[in-house]
Design goal:
About 40% of the residues lie in helices and about 10% in strands. The protein contains 10 helices and 7 strands. The protein is globular, with a radius of gyration of 19 Å.
Length: about 260
């Protein structure tokens, strides 16, 4: 989420799922407002009209989240087509999970994006588990989810979704290409969902015990931290101080929101 936000302009519209809250934080939307929306209290700018975490922030280019993944992809393509029609150089960036690529909405989006050379980035976050269904159920015989874009003549990439710099580079390239009239890009972010799909989900019921611990690509924050330390741009003491500061900030903000 953060790498994507940094690679895009604040005027670019994002069509997210319920797991891209990092884009709002990166675009300086107060976490107080995010918490109030979850609590549906007097500070909720959506006035209780949306399910918690399904944010909608027009002024930060964060399109209303739909709980049904898939719908936002064709909406993003339509928004991008409008940008091209008006002659602006803004792009749209849509997100979905790998499971939703088996839905018609995904293929409608690819078809329109290809036909009208829409300046849009279609991000497939492949965390390998669509609730309790392994990625192979949605992939079928495809080599990867990115490869599905090739059939529509779209530029298609598969990147390590746990590598901050890889995600930033891919999105930066795709956005600049779109602004120059190069059309849409499909990016598959290969990652892994370590925890349950939701708080009501028990992943031990459908995947091997210890699978999460065997995931080889590691935590993206820790990887970026180690990279910066090796470059001499960061150190563990500053990391520890930052974590302590942020935990206190989140706790204090939640107390205010809860009140």
């Amino acid at each position: 989420s953060f790498a994507t936000a940094m690679a895009l302009r604040v005027t670019d519209m994002v069509f997210p799922t319920y797991r891209q809250q990092g884009i709002l934080i990166a675009r300086d939307w107060p976490i107080m407002d995010m918490m109030c929306q979850c609590l549906s209290n007097k500070g909720d700018k959506l006035e209780g009209r949306s399910i918690p975490v399904l944010y909608s922030v027009r002024e930060k280019g964060f399109y209303s989240i739909s709980g049904n993944l898939g719908t936002q992809m064709i909406q993003a393509v339509g928004w991008a087509m409008a940008c091209a029609y008006k002659g602006t150089d803004e792009v749209a960036s849509a997100f979905t999970g790998e499971g939703a690529t088996a839905e018609g909405d995904f293929h409608y989006a690819l078809n329109f994006a290809s036909t009208y050379r829409a300046p849009v980035i279609i991000n497939v976050v492949n965390n390998q588990w669509a609730i309790s269904t392994f990625q192979g159920m949605a992939a079928g015989e495809s080599r990867s989810f990115a490869s599905r874009g090739l059939g529509f003549g779209l530029a298609s990439l598969r990147v390590d979704g746990n590598d901050f710099l890889a995600v930033y580079s891919a999105v930066k390239w795709a956005s600049e290409r779109a602004r120059k009239g190069g059309g849409a890009t499909v990016i598959e972010h290969f990652t892994y969902r370590q925890e349950g799909h939701s708080t009501s989900d028990d992943p031990t019921a459908y995947r091997p015990k210890g699978e999460a611990d065997a995931w080889p690509f590691g935590d993206p924050i820790d990887r970026l931290k180690q990279h910066l330390i090796l470059l001499g741009e960061w150190d563990q003491d500053r990391q520890d101080a930052l974590i302590t500061k942020l935990k206190a900030e989140v706790k204090e903000t939640y107390k205010k929101a809860e009140a």
